[in-house]
Model the fold of this input.
Amino acid sequence: MKIVVCIKQVPDTKGGVKFNPDGTLDRAAMLAIMNPDDKAGLEAALRLKDQYGAEVTVLTMGLPKATDVLREAIAMGADKGILVTDRVLGGADTWATSTTIAGAIRNLEYDLIITGRQAIDGDTAQVGPQIAEHLGIPVISYAQDIKVEGDKVIVQRQYDDRYHVLEAQMPCLITALSELNDPRYMTPGGIFDACKAEITTWGRADLKDVEDCNLGLAGSPTKIAKASDKVRKGAGEKIVPDSPEDAVAYIVGKFKEKHII
Amino acid sequence: MDFTLSKEHEMARTLFKEFAEKEVKPLAQEVDETEVFPRGTVEKMAKYGFLGIPVPKEYGGQGCDPLTYAMCVEELSKVCGTTGVIVSAHTSLCIDPIMTYGTEEQKQKYVVPLAKGEKLGAFGLTEPGAGTDAQGQQTKAVLDGDEWVLNGSKCFITNGKEADVYIIIAVTGKVEKRGRMQKEISAFIVEKGTPGFSFGTKENKMGIRGSSTYELIFTDCRIPKENLLGQKGKGFAIAMHTLDGGRIGIAAQALGIAEGALETTIAYVKERKQFGRSIGQFQNTQFVLADLATKVEAAQMLVYKAAMAKATQKVYSVEAAKAKLFAAEVAMEVTTKCVQLHGGYGYIREYDVERMMRDAKITEIYEGTSEVQRMVISGALLK
Done:
């Protein structure tokens, strides 16, 4: 089995988000890490490798510094790393990103593509499903459990209060949740090997079946007007009324208190 | 001269730090309080190769260098001195002498499972009457047919009851040296479960309380002839060379304890308020922290230099002795002053610095006291 895992290097938001005066992310001031959902996707791929035997290729699009997450993935057990980097690809939104990644994946043989659900720096959850659309393959998003049976995958797709069990013919794409698993650590020997490993680097010319008008900033229909840190909401109030009538009376009382009604 | 760490070492530090924070730190207080050997942590470390870091891959190890190993002990010790010494004794005192002096058969039989972490190692040199005076050994090994018969005891043995493979130093006869009769000392590999090999009392220690420190007792313990490690009569040299490497591990442990105490204290002085301001705003606190941070960094330089020397030099006794002497004394000073900066809270078990100060003390004592390190260093200066 051949598995491609798409990963992204993102700023670590654990210590808070830092912005430049112009409102863009101050990436230099924040630690760069492998996006948590992507790491869970990589772990899922490595478990399939452990269980069934597989070749795991990790692919990322970004600046040359993004090779750090490829090496981390190799130190965890991935077999190959591919970096897609080119000045003309910079400033891409989800559309241009998914177009680029699909163009890179067209060069590869694969049975399964795993991406994270969403990146903590953008939180769109669009790139994974868009890649599947570009490649014309099925997608199962929000995977909380993945099994392989023959040439099919059986995936539990998470919902707020339940999960769906879906089956899909491979090749297909799965988007993984960080809750899917507890990713393994690197090993010291894996790190030494990963630092010696050759990382394949592809640029615009290596992308297959893509048009320039769909790439980079120019090919991005999304324009970001402003970015800001999320405003933390209070914990809220939870009450357990004795009856529906009490609940209604409580809510109406609150509305009146706040002059809503 | 470049003080920048390589990409490999940077990534390795990230790994060890993350592992220590997630897997080791949450248990540190309990391990200390209950004196329970952290078996679960050892199994996790085995899974990720932490028990064979400097061992070549063909012998089941990770194929990394001594610096990576020292960084592992350092990061583990930052949060738990017990966990640091478990790795250090196993790697430096048991695997290293077999890798250095063992036959190919011994390496295959013992180093491979030790490096994979399937087995744990220990080292027995110290006896009730032979600590710094290692020549005062009483444990005897007598060849009887195809077996060595061991009689005697070893004390203060780290990983004592938890280990599977032990390097044991014993007297195998007498030899004339410069006109005087001296004990002939040899080294042996002894497996747990060998008839005649049992455990005595468990030591109730001041610090590193989870590290399983036991007395080992040998009563007509018969081991195969081929379990002699290195040449007969070379045991003292093997022990001393082993301790040179061990001292780098303990120096890394001491460094880690010092760094851990300093980090914890920096966070504390920013939060603790007296007279309406955080105590970190008082110049006394600032100057103490400045001195401690400077000494910790100096200790790190010596420890890393010694680790690099082990990778590139045949003899590194002086580098190892300087690293251990300095790092251990820094650890003691830093933890003591960090307890002081914590005030009354620093004396309470709930606060990590209290444990760190107790853990630090042993680094000035085991694998050669600070006085022994001074003997090694001055011996090289005056020879």
